[in-house]
Amino acid sequence: MKSILRVAVIVLAMLPAISFAQTKKAVWPEAKKFHSFMSSSFHPTEEGNFAPLRKNADSMYIAAQAWQSSPIPDNYKPKETQMNLDILVKLCGDISNAVKAKASDETLKKHIIDAHDAFHKLMGECKKED
Questions:
Q1: How crowded is residue 119: how many other Cβ atoms within 10 Å of its Cβ?
Q2: Which CATH number goes with the domain that contains 33?
Q3: Tens place of pLDDT for every residue, the chain, 130 residues?
Q4: What is the pTM (predicted TM-score) of this model?
């Protein structure tokens, strides 16, 4: 009887963890991939290092396009998300073109700040309320 009671207590203790695992929001792989390029490009520019941005510009643009064409998860507002993904892709295209044109650091900084702001808008304002 004690062993049955122990098993019941263990199972009951695990229910919140099982419930949490089932309700955990889906990860958007394309957003995560884009973020890896954004963070490794943006943060160095804050310190005046533009080499990572110049190196990652095309990859970031391609990742933004892949994100744009991926299915929007249910926890995002579809219309707002698609509109902001379109903006992000354009901004990343601007970065890529500016790098190819050998634009100044100041021009690149403006572009990456705009893209970074658009990224954070997507990850914040485009999500549905919990």
A1: 22
A2: 1.20.120
A3: 666 555 444 555 555 554 444 445 567 999 999 999 999 999 999 999 999 999 999 999 999 999 999 999 999 999 999 999 999 999 999 999 999 999 999 999 999 999 999 999 999 999 988 6
A4: 0.79
